[in-house]
Amino acid sequence: MTDTATVSHSFQAEVSELLHLMVHSVYSETDIFLRELVSNASDACDKLRYEAIARPDLIGEGEPPQIRIIPNKAAGTLTIADSGIGMERQELIDHLGTIARSGTKAFVQKLAEAKDGTGLIGQFGVGFYSAFMVADRIVVISRRAGENDVWTWTSSGGAGFEVAPASEDDAKRVTRGTEIVLHLKDDAKKYLETYEIERIVTAYSDNIQFPIMLVPEEGEPRQINSASALWQRSKSELTAEDYSKAYKSIAHAFDEPAMTLHYRAEGRYSYAVLLFAPSTKPFDLFEPARKGKVKLYVRRVFITDDADLLPAYLRFIRGVIDSEDLPLNLSREMLQNNPQLAQIRKAVTTRVISELEQLADKDPDNFDKIWAAFAAVIKEGLYEDFERRDKLLSLARFTTTSGERRSLKQYVEGLKENQTEIYFLVGDSIERLKSNPRLEAAKARGVEVLLLTDPVDAFWTSARLEFDGKPLKSLSQGDIDFDPIPVTEPKADDEAQPAADEANTIALIKDSLGEHVTDVKVSTRLTTSASCLVAGSHGPDRELERILSQQARGARTKPILEINLRHPLVVAVAKAAADKAKVDDLSFLLLEQAQILDGELPEDPAAFAARLNRLVLQGVATA
Ligand SMILES: Nc1ncnc2c1ncn2[C@@H]1O[C@H](COP(=O)(O)OP(=O)(O)OP(=O)(O)O)[C@@H](O)[C@H]1O
């Protein structure tokens, strides 16, 4: 194989799936293809400007980085050309033949599952491939900055693409960067009209920092975007619409921002900040890498979106930080160890959190959107960011036995007489938690309980936090004493029921269950159920143990069985004292019931079924 031949390649399977959808899509808002291509062109110009800091010859006397849009009615083509970094042969194959971003991969999976994925296209960009919505053939001609070779990539969608050396004419014309020639489908010919192009660029790409030149078939090329770094402008000049557009173009987003933070820090270090919180959740929020996407600029030059400018628990925040005093030639090591960046990170993090606090106060609707989409991420900060833990706790909103989106401040305002702790239960669904027997004593006293169902909840709650001097306590741990809190809803029939003899009953059950539990105790938290399981007061919460053991990250400890002395099943144990087999059956039933109420299986389901049958049949026989 030589470099002079045309070589055919197949698309990665996900790309073929995506293209199939693009080609057959009935999605009406095809305009976004232009935004995607212009934004790729702008990224290419950013990369060139960055590489040229170390190698000024890459730009040299050549064309400054810019983007041109060239309609050609006779040929039926629309060309998007940039004088950016360009791609060499292998880059064309890799970048325009596969999907690298995991977010897009997840997106394609969603598309495959959805019956009609067209709504998803509008909600999440799909980059370069969206051009196949409007074009039936695409030719890409590219020259990497500083290289002699120029390459052509051609595809009509379908299974694959071809890569070949560019023709002499093409090579002469493309001195640096990339030309993307779209052979428009018949129903997409409107994109050859200059007013259409201008409309779309103004709507989606006005904030692109490089000049976007419209090259009409007649007349002179003219710039159609304002090409200003919006974050450098003063707040008073800008409208909500300006910000919304900036968000969409900087974050490649389709939703509206739920929070906008724009300010300039002056002092020891000067920098401009323009940050947004999205109102919807992206697909890659729970990537193990937990990477943020805030872009670092230095004096208007894009440096990287990989500088971790905010802690991982704020990775959903999008936008730009533009420093006046950092050096332009920041290396990767400098990014990690630069004290000035560390300062900026600290100050901006604090500012984002205080902005969220203000939003919660002044614009609860938008705050709720952020909380609904990103609570599970923000709560990671509760065990990671010791310094800001209190602030994050007051930001947090919870579903509780009293309602939804309750803050701890509201919780504390509603504390009952003698209540000194904040109670919570962790589990996997609100419905299941609501029927959890451990809630009974709290319910009888009108005590509010936080119901926590995000996986992260089992982790941060293990950190033994306090709010307003009140410790947060799990109802599935041992040492809860509800007795000092007066009962507001006494259970008449409970009182009427004679209680079983405490010492005797406990001894009987302990003897039956042996190693299956660490202890058997009388419960103060049960009023209607017979039994429940709790962890020791110093061990981990049972839910955390369950999650860790599912991930094979720790063995489970034996629980403590708590029993309700007034429950008929417990009373029956005492009554059956002389019949060891029956005491065993009843004791195990108390344990197994409690396991089932926790959403677990009894250790030996067959033995459980046999036991249940025996007891039921005895009951039927005596009835
Ligand atoms: N005009 C261009 N110049 C240089 N490289 C490009 C150009 N267009 C695309 N690429 C390369 O192809 C890759 C894939 O582009 P694509 O639009 O599919 O995804 P993306 O740009 O990474 O994602 P997104 O569009 O969401 O930012 C880019 O990351 C880039 O490396």
UniProtKB/TrEMBL annotation:
Coiled coil: none
Record GO cellular component, one term: cytoplasm
Annotated binding of ATP, by residue: E36, N40, D82, M87, S102, G103, Q123, F124, G125, V126, G127, F128, T178, R332
Principal place of residence: cytoplasm
Entry's family note: Belongs to the heat shock protein 90 family.
SMART domains the UniProt entry points to: HATPase_c (SM00387)
Region span, C: 547-623
Domain Histidine kinase/HSP90-like ATPase span(s) in chain numbering: 29-188
Species lineage: Bacteria, Pseudomonadati, Pseudomonadota, Alphaproteobacteria, Hyphomicrobiales
Record's subunit section: Homodimer.
Keywords associated with the record: ATP-binding, Chaperone, Cytoplasm, Nucleotide-binding, Stress response
Segments for region (A): 1-332
Protein name: Chaperone protein HtpG
RNA-binding as UniProt keyword: no
